[in-house]
Records
---
Amino acid sequence: MKPAQPVQGLIDGLSCLQSVLSSNKPSGSREVGRRCDLNRTRANRLLGTWRYLGVLQQTEDLKYAPGPALHVLAGMGIQASGLLQAALPIAESWWQKGYSVSLGVRWQDKISFLLQAPADTPFLEGIGRQYTTSALCSSAGLAMLSAASASDLKKWDCAKEWEDIGDDSTFKDVIKNIQANNYATRLYPHQIRSIGVRLNKEGQAALAISKKRMSEKKIPEIVKQLHQSADDITKRLQAHHAPLEVANIPA
């Protein structure tokens, strides 16, 4: 829910921070300003504040990169949320049955994976692979996007992006099917099918599994079990603390 008087400086500051982190390489203030639609002076002040706080640091060529405080805050956030701890034993049970399993969280139209454990690698190696990508690329991301408002999906230009990375169905139809069936699915090369479900109606987190040559007949039962797993994670999370609220920060 949008507050009565949102602090634009905070919004712009987070936009600058997100811009630096999403580039996967050090970024200059001019480049960040262009991405965030801010003049260079304002972008430079905001980035300088993040540097002062230790959230960002500057390279020798005066570009900005992640700083030590960011890693500390990330660790504190994961510990405080309780989501990863709540999901690990349940996710591992899927991995033990031969599935690749992932746990993702959404911010706007992006998904970050707290866990991504392929079936053919040790489960613990899947923890901490926290890369961020478009939510449209995965069944977990699509499941979460189905909970977003139509206005947000339009603002993020999801339909246009789906034309480039999706299948033959329109994005509107894909979202309608997910909302009707309460799960998302994507078919990847080598006959790998992925199925994802939201952990709650707000679409802030999702659990997904994938496997080669998954039988179509087994999908309804797999979906039923996934929803049970999602409920179990939510119960474990509630035992840790109250459910997380969705952070929909304007783009």
---
Amino acid sequence: MIRTIKNFLKYNKKQKISALVVSASLWVFVMGSQDPIMSSSYKVPVSLANPSREYRVIYEEQNIEVDLTAPRSKFAEYKSGDMHAFINATNLYEGEFDLPVEVSFPKGFELDQINPAKIHVKVDPYIEKQIPAEVIVTGSAVTDSIVKGITKSLEIITVIGPKTEVESVRRVLGYVGLTGNKDDFAINVPMTAIDDDGREVKDVRVVPSSINVTVDIESGFKKKVVPIISEISPPAGREIAEIIVEPKTVEITAKEDVLNNISSVSTAKAVITAGKERFEGDLKIVLPEGVTAQISEVYVTATLKK
């Protein structure tokens, strides 16, 4: 073995050493300088370009995947944030659309694929609607006092927002607590947009967001629980078998001299029409002047004799 190596170096020594040096140099050059082409995939958030103040654009697809090809050195230089994906909102109008995704990336890369290439969007124009301001009184004033009147600084509230949300608003409410009050008072009341189910509609703007409310409280009142009577008229030739009122009684409030003359209150009158065997429904309570009640209507069921 040793002899073979000696023989190898003995003859054409200079040429062989030169060949080894050249080979080593070429190997270093190839390994250090070669920049192979490769591919990689990136998850990129999608933004909205050129949005308008006239409408809201909704899209569920928040991220896309982008496949790029480039020399290995380019990927080594790549930094998070060098690539951007967006959908162009220019010249949109109300409706639903599939918009192409556009991608910008550093020089030296080639785009292979965008997934998904299009994003479904819903365009909802901004509108406004005027709705009456409602104030709901909660709690009770002191025992001998009632709310004589409520004055609002504004009767109409403007609701502004995306059309879908604004159209879902049914009421704009504010709440005033009475508990423990015996004198007139003023309060600033926040107003809230409410839908049919009584839930707050959050993606709208209520203008103004609050109003001033003045509550006029009058003292010298008494309370009394009285039965509720409902008068239902039957069809010609028929008789009423039974009338059920729920609830059967109501607490009323009035000045003492007025209250002393009241033994019951009545509902609005109703009629069982020909061909029907019963009446069911809500009826308003009819109150004398100067009298208030905890509830304004009751549920009445009336049936006819067979």
---
Amino acid sequence: MDHRMNWGSLSKAERDLSYNNSAAVADSAAQVESWRSASTAFRLAHGGHLDIAYGPKPRNQLDLYPASDASAPCLIFIHGGYWMRNGRENFACMAEGALAKGWSAALPSYTLAPDATLTEIVAEIRRSLDWFAENRALHGITGPVILSGWSAGGHLTAMTFDHPVVKAALPISGVFELGPIRDTYINDAVRLTDEEIVTLSPLRLQSAPKPMSIAYGTRELSALVEDSRALNAMRAMLHQPGHLIPVAGADHFSILESLRKADGLLMRAAEELLHL
């Protein structure tokens, strides 16, 4: 059940809980810490193309992990954290499945709220894609690009996958309607304007007619489940290619394990997008 149907009758605390993934998953802190440990090791083992500036701000950096075959597909993964936490360094392990599959991978960071507005964050991701399109061949990456992201990164994926360098998209556990976010603790940092809610909510925009598969865990909070279902339904009405992928038994954090494995459900979904 989507609790936002009764949004006006909910208390502030209830609204906060509707989007608080960490509170909803008992071992979320342990899962995140395991990513950090694995990501530190991964970056140490693949250190040839790290901390590359794509823009003028301190967090305008990305890490590249070229495959041995320059023409192999590339997974670009945008980290989450409700636009106000984390960085690419904590999510390097999300490239494990891509590299094990013989793909390249790339992970950008972006300025976090409140130091940047959501409008500025979306623009930074576009700038990172501009830089990637212009410079990727210099780093041994020329193959087709699947853009993916998790949580807030899923939102940023949906907002930027119209970029010419992107062939298809795989948003994971994303937020696609921003209206309710303004009534939660998240807005203390993100500070959404009326205009941003309209212009940066993927569910209020025309979706690019490229392949997009949309994934969510069946143990996610209902707000995120319903956003994923709604975005898929909107695209399906327009006969746009892609699939809705409910990952059985996965919560907001454990869903990413199926991206970290070459034969995981989400890596297989990314590969399928190449052929849609």
---
Amino acid sequence: MATLALILYGVYLVLAFGLRTLIQLRRTGSTGFHGLGGRPGSAEWIAGVGFTVALLVGAAAPVLALLDVVEPIPALDTTAAPVAGLLLAVAGIGLTFYAQVAMGASWRIGVDPAERTQLVTSGPFALVRNPIFAAMLPTALGRRVAGAVARPGYPTTAGGNAEPERVPDPELAERPKRRRFSAEYKLQILREADACAKQGEIGALLRREGLYSSHLSTWRAQREAGGLKELSRRRGRKPADPLAAENAELRHRAERAEAELAKARKVIEVQGNVSALLEDLLGTEGAEESTER
């Protein structure tokens, strides 16, 4: 985060310039500062101006990020980036201060052609010709990585509402909860992000929702692939088609009519059989009476 990068830069300035200057002043009676050396346009003068500009830019970068003038780097906008940047910056700050102390009384900022100091060849100077500037490189890189992520806002729910403050149980260690985002929420945030036209509006949106720019990149890819559209559909049974329901009702009526017709046919058939049996019985009795007479 930009705040972390600014804090690291403040610690770096206090140690590399403030504390080291105080040590030099107590040892030699001189601060070791010579300012810009050489005539304007010379190599010494350009180096001094470049060093001063670098210090100002180093302070301006996290300040601009805090003011939402610059956006975080998407490739570095991960949860591991601040940790890696912090470790790298702390190691670089420590190595820078160690190399400065190893110079002893020969430590200077700026060049005075008339001054002669002892050449330091021990300690880190036995490995690197200029270990101070070599250690400044991981310091600057670590601060940049630590400040490359968006500043998360206060904890929010998936819908964007603030969570109620809870009093933690002192006897139980709370486990971090993984936030879950619905497809509707992702589409809403993407629509708001797409509508951001002014500089810094996306950063304000991310802070408000407690999100990272990597969320936007992932959700945009899901939207382009059509995944969010499919997930945004409501689960459960699909609404019934009126035409299909009407056809089903007609089929049911036809089946019921066929069943009733089959029953009627059976009744008629039984009635016909009974009638034929009665006719046979009546015909037999009439023949017997004729024979007896």
